[in-house]
């Protein structure tokens, strides 16, 4: 059964230097509050896993939390590049960043395998692209019935998964709705998990489009109202598209970036 | 609406209108972000009101009032016929080949329609690190056909992409079949200068349309390979006043 | 886009002798009305696919529609045996019945592969059991990353899938809620599909726990109020447990069975 | 409630109560239909109010007032914490080994706890065709431990099952590991006569408890192999009045 604890305590207990951390949320429900807490606690050498690194991992990479990034699309959606991610890859600033690069379909299926207790997943993917030449975790596999060659990716089983959701009850049952992305898979694939929520409620009222993650499948729940900003939590907030546009300037320059982080996060 | 609206448009507007026209009513369209999203949303307001918009965030049949900034804006989920998980959108909807059209952008595209959105320069020591693959490799593999929207320049239209993120026709005829890719590949590349389509025999992209006011020499100067023109090279119909008005309502211009 | 047509017409157009037909609905939403229409139209030599054959396939087998059964649990849930199924397997009455036998996990994953456009699925299943010795569609597969041996089953891609749902709108978008079983997978795996519904409505009002199958992924929709009886349609009816208990007697004897079918179905 | 309630119970009631007692509060339990479902529902009303009931129909955390007839009765979905698809319940919830206890029935069970629910007699020419596997093979493989509930008789307790539908300990020590089965197998077999548990060395089921009034000879007479008794063979605690009252409220007796 998930226990409800303050965010700083949950992060201190669950996220350790050198571990693999998956923070998911596909455009929607990105766990910024938790990521900022990881930055404040000065975690280092993390393997950060996320389909779309978004501004969150741009910030974590720029603040030196990461040793490695596993991802499938590292941009500022609809705006352009993630400059801290680019600076790390192109110029090793503030530290070298190893990358393990996939497609969305590949990572999504790797999480599915992880959540399913399987060592690998099969997909029609990557064939003919240059990704397999650079990513060791993409291999061919042959159908035992038809002989057709397809692609396999190994399961992702992070040490910790962190996601944001709209609500939890006091027993740690979590409810989320809208675009739910790959969050269920990330939580179920992980050894430990933290769900930050907009609101703790006495009772989870059923809602159209909502999924529920039972508390017994989660380690900790923490209240973090507004914790998905500048992403959004459907029913609570809207996406701060202006901030995403503004980040292009903030993130472009190392000093501007560090100053912004000092003022707003540290 | 004034009568000179028909000639007062930008090359990006021509590109978006030309892309929107390629979509037929009732089709399903897997939409990439940016130019593809604007074009698909324009089509829904003009020639294809029942176009089914599918975004990789898991929204099926989204009906946004304005093109979203991201592929996961709240309006997509609120207006969708169904919202499914990200694994499901790729596995159940994209992968089996049930989606008619994939709409993609590109940083580089080569003469065989292969797309690069990963790196400029060597992978391990890139000149420019681009966002990467996202949903594109499997969109390019599995949609019944693919439309690419990209501004034409020598930087973007190259003999051979630095990195194959998404396969067009590989190194030529038979490659898609050999790789087991189910869709028919990039049938249309729409630029700010014209429209390219693959030669049915050699799979090489050739110019089939020039937008009004653009010359063949201009298109060739913006292409990094010896660009061939189709024997029946035509001029694109300029945007109609209705198309332009609808587009500008979308983009807020 | 699905077209809305009368049930008899939909069955006549979609279900042909000798084809494979998957009728799904896990205890809930079993498409009885459609199955009875198939019986009335005298279809023969069908390969019937269904995780839990239930009374529906007991009736179809007993009426001679089936040449082969692909299944994972052939009982009367909570009651006992399916006597017509047993009579076909043990005594070839009214016709020999070939069987292809799986576990629930195996068939569920075979549908997932079918819906996903993959030729096979991988699972931790069947190992050590006697099923692989009798079912040719169960094979070992080795993980290309860990070397671990797992199990593969080939995709199920039926000629036709038939399911029952609560509602559809006039464009053929289908909404179902409660226990939704493997219905989405069956429809998406099939070449053609028929969804019978309790009710046609102008607008599908969002509902907690509901999933929507878009009309463009379905061939035909037919109105069939009460069409899941003696199974049930949450929000419209409850399971007729008395009928399930009574079937044990009706189905036990060939003559009683035929008389019942003549009176209630033909 | 009269004082002689404690002795006025059937052997099935004793079996169900003994099974319910094996469940600990807060555990998750994948419930087969019939006797297992009654026992799990009894546990939720007695010693394990926060037991998480999981049915293969996809209902997680169901809280039925009465044991359902089928594993998909409406009350399961209406009272569940979450309802998921059938593929999801097997793949995301059962397969990774995150469920504590699997509760299964059996038509035949052998000395190594292997279960048959498929056929009596040869597969291709069966004497009795049984329902088949359902969810059982993977429940038996993947739950952290398995409890089997089955009435004891020579017909059911056989030297070797006619068909291995669900693996217990295979042909003995090391087999589960060799097969890659993740759960620890059938730790408890509860019958109307007593309780059997696997010998930790040889994996053979041995009698550890006799229900009140049952003799070792009776248990042996109802077993198709040389049934060993544990050195510390004990008598099961009879049902308490509270247990019996709760059970009878459930079964309507």
From TrEMBL, chains A, C:
One of its GO terms (molecular function) is CoA-transferase activity. It holds the Pfam family CoA_trans. Transmembrane segments: none annotated. SUPFAM superfamilies: NagB/RpiA/CoA transferase-like (SSF100950). Keywords: Transferase. It comes from the Bacteria. Belongs to the 3-oxoacid CoA-transferase subunit B family. This is Glutaconate CoA-transferase subunit A.
UniProtKB/TrEMBL annotation, chains B, D:
It holds the Pfam family CoA_trans. SUPFAM superfamilies: NagB/RpiA/CoA transferase-like (SSF100950). It comes from the Bacteria. Transmembrane segments: none annotated. Keywords: Transferase. GO terms for molecular function: CoA-transferase activity. The keyword DNA-binding does not apply. Signal peptide: none annotated. The keyword Heme does not apply. PANTHER family: ACETATE COA-TRANSFERASE YDIF, CHOLESTEROL RING-CLEAVING HYDROLASE IPDB SUBUNIT. Belongs to the 3-oxoacid CoA-transferase subunit B family. This is Glutaconate CoA-transferase subunit B. It comes from Streptosporangium subroseum.
